[in-house]
C-alpha cells in the first residue's frame, strides 16, 4: 500500500536540606483576576455551573487579554528561577548535533531529512540515486516558510514517477493545512495553493492528481468550532480547487467524522476508511480500472479496526482485530471482500501485531511487554526469519516499495539515541547505517522493566530509567510520565530532554497504563468509558510503587502527560493531590462535560463516552473531569499547565478553565500557573527553539518546587565535598 495518513487520537539527586524549603517572598505569585459568569448547564436534572465559559471564545479581546496577563504572571515567576538559563544552555548543547533520517527513493533521487542541530525544522535533502550522498542538495527547507519557524511541514508525497511532489504546511501549529504542488526537478511551485485541508494524507493516483480529506470551514472560530463531517476529494492537477471532485462524504448516508482514502501501490484500487470515533472503522474498496465503479463495503460497521495493507492483483491482504483483539492478517478476493470470505494469513498471537510490507515480504512487528520483536514472512505466509534487532527497545520503519532490495529501520530505547540500520531484505543482514554523534553515553545509564500491581490486582509494566549508581534514598527527583488512552502504546524511545533530566540525576518512569494498546484491544477497552478510572488507578499505583521502592517520595515526584495524558495528570492531581509535589499537564482534555462540542472532539467518545449519553455516564464523567473536581480549601501540588493558543485538537479553553479553577481554589503556597505558547498548536511542528525554551521552563519549575536552589548535580557534589 502507498502511505495513507489516517486520523489518530485525536510526548538531580537531593537537596542539601532534609525538607523542601519555603520559597522567598519575591517568588510569590499574584494571579490575574479571572471574572466569573452565571452560565449553568443542566444534565439529566443536575445543574452544573460553568463560570469560566467565556474563556472558550478564543477570538475575543477579553480572552486575549487574559492570556497576556496569565503569561506575564507565569514568565515573571519562571524568569526568577536562578538555574533556568543553565538548564536551557544544557539543552542547547546536547540538542546541537546532526540528526538524519532514513533515506527513501522517489523517481531518480534518494531523499532524506536532516537537521544540522538547532534548526527549527528539518530540511529535506536529495541526491541522484547511485551517486555519492555527499553531493546531496537542499530539496525543501521548511525553515524558509517563516522567520520564527512557526510554519512547519505537515506531510510530503510524491507522484508515482517521482516527478511531482505535494506537501502540506501548518501555520502556528494548527491542524488546518495548506497543500502546495511542485515540480520535483525544478523545485518550482506549479499551481495555486490548496487551502482549508484538515486531518488528511495526500495519496497520488499515478501522476495525474491526488486524494485528500477535509471539512467544510465551520461557522465561528476555525480553531474551536465543531467539525464533524469529513469529505474525500480528488484534485486533478492544473485545475482549480473549487473543481475538485467529491469522492465520498457530504450526504446523510456517508456522514463520518474521519475519512481517509489512498490508492494501492499498483493504483488498481482506492481504499477508503470511514469512522465516527478514533477506534473502529468502516472499510470500502473501489476498482479504479472501471470508470464508473462504486465503492464496495469490505466492513460496513465500526465495531472493529480494519485496513488493507497490500494487494497482489485482486488478492487483498487485510489487517484486522475482528475476532482477533491482538490483530491478524487475512486474505480475500476483492470481488467478494466481506468477512465471511476471509482466510487467515498471519494468525493472531498473544502479542499485538503491527505489520508492514517491503521488497516483496511482510514484516510483522509484535509488542512483547511493550518492546519490539519483528518477524519476516513471504507472500505465502511462510515465516522466513525473526529479524535480529540491535537490542531491547523499539524498532520501526520496516517498509519499502515492492521492487526494493533493501530497507532502512530505526532502533531506539530510553538510553539509546535513535540509530538507522540498513537491512538486506533477501539475506536478512543488518548493518548500522547512521548513528547520531550526540554527547550522551548510554553506558552511564540503565533501564529496568518492573511489573507492579494496580488497585484491582492488574499487573502493569513500567520502565524506569536513571543514571547508574542511583541511591534509593527516596530523594531522587522523578518524572512519572503517562498517557493511557486511544490504543496508543508507549514503547521505549530516546528523548533529548529526558537525557538532560537523567544527566542531572533525575529518574524517568513510564508505565504502560490500561487504555493504551500495549496488550491489544482488551487492554485498550479496559481503560475506556465506565472503566476510565482504571487508567488513573494504574497511574496512582505506579507513583506508589516508585515511592515504596525508594526511587523517590511525594516531595520529589512530578507527574507529566499531554493531551489525553494531560487529562490523566489533571484527574490524578485532583484525586490524590498529596501524591506528588509537581503536576505538569500539557494540552489536556480537562472539561470532560464539553470536550465533544469542540472541533473533532466528538470522535473521542469511544474512549470517553459523553455527558449526553446517559445519566449514569454523565455522573461517571463528572466524577473525574478535572475542571469539575478542583475543590476549594485543598492544597494542590505546584502546577504548570501548558498549552498553545493555536491548538485546534484539544482547544486551549480546557487548560484555561482548569488553571482558573486552580488559581481560585488553591489553599496551599504552591504556585499554579499556566504557560500559553503563542503561534503554537497541539505539538506537531513546534520549532526547536520553542521546544528548548518550554522544556527549560518546565524542568526549572519542577526542580525549584522540589526545593532546589541550584541544580541537583551541583547539590550532590557540594554534599560530597
Distance N to C terminus: 62 Å
Average residue-wise pLDDT: 91
CATH topology of the domain at 40-92 and 440-706: Rossmann fold
* Multimeric organization: single chain
Main structural class: alpha+beta
How is the main sheet built?
Answer: 8 strands, mixed
CATH class of the domain at 40-92 and 440-706: Alpha Beta
Helix content: 10-25%
Principal-axis shape equals: globular
- The CATH superfamily of the domain at 40-92 and 440-706 bears the name Alpha/Beta hydrolase fold, catalytic domain
Give the second-level CATH assignment, the architecture of the domain at 40-92 and 440-706: 3-Layer(aba) Sandwich
GO biological process, one term: proteolysis
Function: Cleaves peptide bonds on the C-terminal side of prolyl residues within peptides that are up to approximately 30 amino acids long. Has an absolute requirement for an X-Pro bond in the trans configuration immediately preceding the Pro-Y scissible bond.
Keywords: Hydrolase, Periplasm, Protease, Serine protease, Signal
InterPro entries: AB_hydrolase_fold, Pept_S9_AS, Pept_S9A_N, Peptidase_S9_cat, Peptidase_S9A, Prolyl_oligopep/macrocyclase
Please, could you describe this protein's structure?
This protein has 721 residues and is an alpha+beta fold. The protein is 17% helix and 32% strand. The chain has 11 helices and 40 strands. The strands form 9 sheets. Strands 33-34-36-35-37-38-39-40 form an 8-stranded mixed β-sheet, with helices on both faces. Strands 3, 4, 5, 6 and 7 form a 5-stranded antiparallel β-sheet that branches. Mean pLDDT is 91; it is low at 1-23 and 717-721. Residues 492-707 form the Peptidase S9 prolyl oligopeptidase catalytic domain. GO terms for molecular function: oligopeptidase activity; serine-type endopeptidase activity. Keywords: Hydrolase, Periplasm, Protease, Serine protease, Signal.
Amino acid at each position: 500500500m502507498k502511505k495513507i495518513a489516517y486520523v489518530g487520537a485525536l510526548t538531580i539527586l537531593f537537596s542539601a536540606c532534609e525538607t523542601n524549603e519555603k520559597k522567598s517572598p519575591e517568588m510569590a505569585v499574584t494571579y490575574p483576576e479571572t471574572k466569573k459568569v452565571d452560565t449553568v448547564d443542566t444534565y439529566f436534572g443536575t445543574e452544573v455551573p460553568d463560570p469560566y465559559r467565556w474563556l472558550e471564545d478564543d477570538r475575543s479581546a477579553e480572552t486575549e487579554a487574559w492570556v497576556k496577563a496569565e503569561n506575564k504572571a507565569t514568565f515573571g515567576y519562571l524568569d526568577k528561577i536562578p538555574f533556568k538559563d543553565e538548564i536551557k544552555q544544557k539543552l542547547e548543547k546536547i540538542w546541537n548535533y546532526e540528526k538524519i533520517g532514513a533515506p527513501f527513493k522517489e523517481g531518480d533521487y534518494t531523499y532524506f531529512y536532516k537537521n544540522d542541530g538547532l534548526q527549527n525544522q528539518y530540511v529535506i535533502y536529495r541526491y541522484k540515486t547511485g551517486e555519492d550522498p555527499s553531493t546531496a542538495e537542499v530539496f525543501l527547507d521548511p525553515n524558509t516558510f517563516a522567520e520564527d519557524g512557526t510554519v512547519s511541514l505537515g506531510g510530503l508525497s510524491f507522484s508515482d514517477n517521482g516527478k511531482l511532489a505535494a506537501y502540506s504546511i501548518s501555520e502556528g501549529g494548527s491542524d488546518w493545512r495548506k497543500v502546495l504542488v511542485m515540480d520535483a526537478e525544478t523545485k518550482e511551485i506549479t499551481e495555486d495553493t490548496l487551502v482549508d485541508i484538515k486531518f488528511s494524507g495526500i495519496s497520488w493516483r499515478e501522476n495525474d492528481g491526488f486524494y485528500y480529506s477535509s471539512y467544510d470551514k465551520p461557522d465561528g472560530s476555525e480553531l474551536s468550532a465543531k467539525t464533524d463531517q469529513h469529505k474525500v476529494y480528488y484534485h486533478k492537477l492544473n485545475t482549480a480547487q473549487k473543481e475538485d471532485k467529491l469522492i465520498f462524504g457530504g450526504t446523510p448516508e456517508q456522514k463520518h467524522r474521519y475519512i481517509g482514502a489512498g490508492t494501492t501501490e499498483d493504483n488498481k484500487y482506492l481504499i477508503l476508511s470511514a469512522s465516527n470515533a478514533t477506534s473502529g472503522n468502516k472499510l470500502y474498496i473501489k476498482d479504479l480500472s472501471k470508470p464508473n465503479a462504486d465503492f464496495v463495503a469490505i466492513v460496513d460497521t465500526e465495531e472493529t479496526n480494519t485496513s488493507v495493507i497490500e494487494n497482489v492483483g485482486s488478492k487483498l491482504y487485510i489487517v484486522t482485530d475482528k475476532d482477533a483483539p491482538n490483530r491478524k492478517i487475512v486474505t480475500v478476493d476483492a470481488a467478494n471482500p466481506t468477512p465471511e470470505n476471509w482466510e487467515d494469513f498471519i494468525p493472531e498471537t498473544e502479542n499485538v501485531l503491527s505489520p508492514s510490507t517491503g521488497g516483496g515480504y511482510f514484516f510483522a512487528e509484535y509488542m512483547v511487554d511493550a518492546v519490539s520483536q519483528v518477524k519476516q514472512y513471504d507472500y505465502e505466509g511462510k515465516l522466513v526469519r525473526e529479524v535480529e534487532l540491535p537490542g531491547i527497545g523499539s524498532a520501526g520503519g520496516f517498509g519499502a516499495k515492492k521492487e526494493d532490495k533493501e530497507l532502512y529501520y530505526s532502533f531506539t530505547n530510553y538510553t539509546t539515541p535513535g540509530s538507522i540500520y540498513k537491512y538486506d531484505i533477501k539475506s536478512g543482514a543488518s548493518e548500522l547505517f547512521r548513528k547520531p554523534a550526540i554527547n550522551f553515553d548510554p553506558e552511564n545509564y540503565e533501564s529496568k522493566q518492573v511489573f507492579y500491581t494496580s488497585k484491582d490486582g492488574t499487573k502493569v509494566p513500567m520502565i524506569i530509567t536513571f543514571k547508574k549508581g542511583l541511591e534509593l534514598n527516596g530523594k531522587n527527583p522523578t518524572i512519572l510520565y503517562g498517557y493511557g488512552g486511544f490504543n496508543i502504546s508507549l514503547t521505549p524511545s530516546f528523548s533529548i530532554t529526558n537525557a538532560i533530566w537523567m544527566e542531572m540525576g533525575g529518574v524517568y518512569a513510564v508505565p504502560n497504563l490500561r487504555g493504551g494498546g500495549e496488550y491489544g484491544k482488551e487492554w485498550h477497552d479496559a481503560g475506556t468509558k465506565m472503566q476510565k478510572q482504571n487508567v488513573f488507578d494504574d497511574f496512582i499505583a505506579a507513583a506508589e510503587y516508585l515511592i515504596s521502592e525508594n526511587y523517590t517520595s511525594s516531595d520529589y515526584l512530578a507527574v507529566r502527560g499531554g493531551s489525553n495524558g494531560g487529562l490523566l495528570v489533571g484527574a490524578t492531581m485532583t484525586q490524590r493531590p498529596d501524591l506528588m509535589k509537581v503536576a505538569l499537564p500539557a494540552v489536556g482534555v480537562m472539561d470532560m462535560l464539553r470536550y465533544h462540542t469542540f472541533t473533532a472532539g466528538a470522535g473521542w467518545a469511544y474512549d470517553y463516552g459523553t455527558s449526553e449519553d446517559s445519566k449514569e455516564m454523565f455522573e461517571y464523567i463528572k466524577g473525574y473531569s478535572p475542571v469539575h473536581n478542583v475543590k476549594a480549601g485543598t492544597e494542590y501540588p505546584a502546577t504548570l499547565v501548558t498549552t498553545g493558543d493555536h491548538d485546534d485538537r484539544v482547544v486551549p479553553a480546557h487548560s484555561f478553565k482548569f488553571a482558573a479553577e486552580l488559581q481560585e481554589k488553591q489553599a496551599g503556597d504552591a504556585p499554579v500557573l499556566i504557560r500559553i505558547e503563542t503561534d503554537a498548536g497541539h505539538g506537531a511542528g513546534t520549532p526547536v527553539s520553542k521546544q528548548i525554551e518550554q522544556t527549560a521552563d518546565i524542568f526549572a519549575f519542577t526542580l525549584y518546587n522540589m526545593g532546589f536552589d541550584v541544580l541537583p548535580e551541583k547539590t550532590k557534589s557540594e554534599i560530597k565535598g
